[in-house]
Amino acid sequence: MNTSPVLVGIDGSEQAAAAARWAAHEAVLRHVPLTVLAAFGFADSGFGGRYPPADWLEAKETAAEELLQTVREDLAEAEPRVRITVETSPAGPEVALREASAKARLLVLGEPTGTLSGLLAGSPDIDLAAHAHCPVVVVRGTVRADGPVVVGIDGSPLSDAAISCAFEEAAVHGVSLVALHAWLDADRFRLFGDRDFPFEAREAEHRLLAQRLAGYGALYPDVRVEQVVEQDRPRDRLIEWSARASLVVLGSRGRGGFTGMVLGSTSHALLHHAECPVLVVRSGHPAAEE
Q1: What SS3 state is found at 258?
Q2: pLDDT tens per residue, range 129-168
Q3: Which site among 23, 141, 156, 200 is 20 to 30 Å from 68 CA-CA?
Q4: Residue 46 and residue 22 in contact, taking contact as beta carbons nearer than 8 Å
């Protein structure tokens, strides 16, 4: 069992506070500690790339420590069973989070609101989600305790990490799992337009999804699985499902871009428009295999 802590970054924003509350609850469910990190680096200090004066850094560190104390008290009241460790970092937010993620089970971030700035923005960029050393959750939209976990499956081996992680999340939360395979072949779409694709093509997609899910039922016998195959663009269907889900799970190759069904615009769309938290897991990361 992975006993590494859940890690959350805070900056004083409501988005970060919501992420911290979500992370505290997750730490309790997993019986692991929670690490709350405030980075006070000078990436956006306004000193034109020059190292800021010592009194500026001291003021930032003091503000970060005061923020951590407030957050710690709030979380202890909201989740009395959570074990909390607080940390500050003189590095910039992205660097601090990426380094700290090497010792974390899960990195939790606030809803994107812009570029990383200040003590720690509640605004992760795609690079941080792709390069963290553990799965990354962006807490956005509505937090639902009883909604299903929805995992997007593109049919490639790279989505296996997302599937494994999604089953674990559904088991931890005691909810069902929706395995969504949305596909739309551009060449076939030009030939057939809005009409349904040939029966053989649609059946092949159903077989592909079943093959990807094979074996997980034995590992997670208590997780009820709904297989959904849609002749549509993944981004549209995932956003639609996020309106009733507790979590949407996506896969990443971890090299600065998402692969398969979550390439480019789909990943951006979910991180900025999903109506529930979104989890991004890198293919091959140990956390995805437990």
Answers
A1: coil
A2: 778 899 999 999 999 999 999 999 987 766 888 999 999 9
A3: 141
A4: no
